[in-house]
Amino acid sequence: MRLAFRLKHHFFSAFREIFVHHHGSLEFRSKIFALIIVANEKVQEESYEIVKNTALEIYDGNEDRANLLIMSTKELVKKVTDNNGLDLDTLVAHIQKELRIVPRYAKKIDIESLKPIVALSYDGDTISYQENILEFLQELKDETLSTKKDQIVEDEERLLQESHTK
Fold first, then answer.
1. What are the residue boundaries of the structural domains of the chain, listed by start?
2. Please, which pLDDT band fits residue 160 given cuts at 50, 70 and 90?
3. What secondary structure letter does DSSP report for 110?
4. DSSP 152
């Protein structure tokens, strides 16, 4: 990665909420990716390439935003693997809490973009575990979209109005 991006990343890491547009959405996506990546005890570097390709699609080729998603995902994976105050159960709890607060994030759960990460696994138990996580995420998404439909519509309308006033 470019030196300029690394410097920008360190700066943004400290002030992410202030300087990164829709940082909450980016953080939520990074939690989803981190959850499926870290479910494999042997984290595959290729997983981050999948995250980058997905991010480039999501963010219309915006390389800086894609790199921010990768860096955020790596930070979360490192926290879990280093047992630094975060584990899989806590990560799941954070995802569930964020969906209760911002239910429109459920639309950001894209199971198809996570499946290639599972395909990198070789161990049958790991694959089964990751597939259970995918199933859980799909159920969480479906439940949130159906039970919080009105709130999602209101939030999206508010965001649309805010974007027109800027």
1. 3-165
2. confident
3. -
4. H
